[in-house]
Specification:
alpha+beta, six-stranded mixed beta sheet, single chain, disordered C terminus, Nucleoside Triphosphate Pyrophosphohydrolase, two-stranded antiparallel sheet, 30% strand
Length: 164
C-alpha cells in the first residue's frame, strides 16, 4: 500500500445550491479485547486527530469533491488525515456548522468508520519518523505488536494536511 498525497485546492469542491461547502467526515473506531472490561470484555477505542494548528482534537473530515462518491470521500479523508481504512457504516447525521478558519457555514455529513487497517507507518514519509514511531510502539507495548501501530500512537499523529 502506498500512501496517497492529499488533494490540494478547492476547484473540485461540491457546494449546496445556497453556496455552503459540502464536507464529509468520520468517527474512526474499533473494539479491542480488554479483560478489565467486565462483562463484555472489550473496550471501545476512538481515533482523533489534531487540528492543523494543533490546538484541538477532532475527527477526520474534509471537502466532498465532484469527482467522487460520498463514500469515496469518507475513505479518502480517513486515509489522508488519520492513516486508517475501514468499513463505513450508516450515516450518523447531517449538520450545518460554521468553520473556524474562514468563518463560513458548511454542510457536513458524518459516518462511523469501523477501522480494519491502521497504516500510520506508511503515512510517515521520513525514515527517522518511522523509526521513532517503531521505538515508541515497542516501548508502549513492551516489545509486542511489532507489525501493527497501537491506538495510542494513532491519537498522537497529526493530519497529513499540516505538511506544507
Amino acid at each position: 500500500m502506498v500512501a496517497q498525497a492529499a488533494r490540494q485546492g478547492r476547484n473540485l469542491q461540491r457546494f449546496t445550491r445556497t453556496g455552503l461547502r459540502l464536507v464529509v467526515g468520520c468517527i474512526p473506531y474499533k473494539f479491542e479485547e480488554d479483560i478489565r472490561m467486565e462483562p463484555i470484555g472489550q473496550s471501545l477505542q476512538v481515533l482523533v486527530i489534531c487540528s492543523q494548528k494543533g490546538q484541538e482534537l477532532m475527527f477526520p473530515k474534509g471537502g466532498w469533491e465532484i469527482d467522487e462518491s460520498i463514500r469515496d470521500a469518507v475513505h479518502r479523508e480517513a486515509m489522508e488525515e488519520a492513516g486508517v481504512k475501514g468499513v463505513i457504516e450508516r450515516i450518523l447525521g447531517k449538520w450545518r456548522y460554521m468553520g473556524k478558519a474562514d468563518k463560513s457555514y458548511k454542510y457536513g455529513f458524518m459516518y462511523p468508520l469501523n477501522v480494519k487497517e491502521e497504516l500510520l507507518q506508511e503515512a510517515c514519509k521520513q525514515p527517522w519518523m518511522r523509526e521513532a514511531l517503531d521505538r515508541l510502539q515497542r516501548r508502549l507495548t513492551g516489545g509486542t505488536a511489532a507489525n501493527s501501530p497501537c491506538t495510542a500512537i494513532a491519537k498522537m499523529c497529526t493530519s497529513e494536511r499540516s505538511a506544507p
